[in-house]
Amino acid sequence: MTAQSTRRFxxxxxxxxxxxxxxxxxxxxxxxxxxxHLVEAGIDGVxxxxxxxxxxxxxxxxxKRAVEFVVRHVAGRISVLxxxxxxxxxxxxxxxxxxxxxxxxxxxxVSPYYFGPDDAAAERYFATVSxxxxxxxxxxxxxxxTGNDLNPELVARLRQRHPTIVGIxxxxxxxxxxxxxxxxxxxxxHDFSVLSGYDEYYLVNRVSxxxxxxxxxxxxxxxxxxxxxxxxxxxxxATAITAAQRISRLMAIYDQADLFISAIKGAVKAKGxxxxxxxxxxxxxxxxxxxxxxxxxxxxxx
Length: 302
Description:
By secondary structure, the protein is an alpha/beta fold. The protein is 45% helix and 12% strand. The chain has a single domain (8-221), classed as Aldolase class I (TIM Barrel). It contains twelve helices and eight strands. Strands 1-2-3-4-5-6-7-8 form an eight-stranded parallel barrel, surrounded by seven helices.
């Protein structure tokens, strides 16, 4: 185990949209501007090829090219995490090894999806991932998409048996699940990051003993999340609550599109970055009317 694998990930993390042109090819100039905005806002790290980053839609070679670009562009200013999800374990291992050599800070490994595995199969899968690289591995629990849940007991066992598994993004729409993960893993180690995947759960995540969020609206208003985090850390709870109220209102953005990816891309565009809102097919694309509503939501004052 390397020294790098003991690192703890706390605070505000952004699962970046993957910015393309209208043909679906990477648009690196605009993506670089988006990354600069995230860095300048003060977030702690960026995840590329999470769910909002459409990890499921890009070929492996395109993802490798994107990793090289992001690592080079970010240049150590914030942590770079990469989602290595795939239905083919050979691709997962290949990408994990590539990321290690490319200078990535950590991997995010979603559960195998379509046929959600039982606990024993999930243990074998994550063992294979953790043994393929010395990079820290963050579990990604998203049962609404994968068809299976990384239950608290399983998470604790994985951490106990594989020290390079250093955290989890828990995208379950109930804080009780995340709280139970925290309770199960703390007797094993205090050096395990528990991040919520739902934007509005930052405060209750922290109160429950968690470490922050890795969530989509950080693409749209990273400054609001950073303000909330820094205020909470300093004990300025009034400011933290005000920021949380703003985030709660922005949650309506997700309801304006068929797919949450489209909604977030639309909101980033509404904030002034002239990106394409294309989501790689098959997908229902954002309509002009939906974009208009998202724009209005983004411009509303507190």
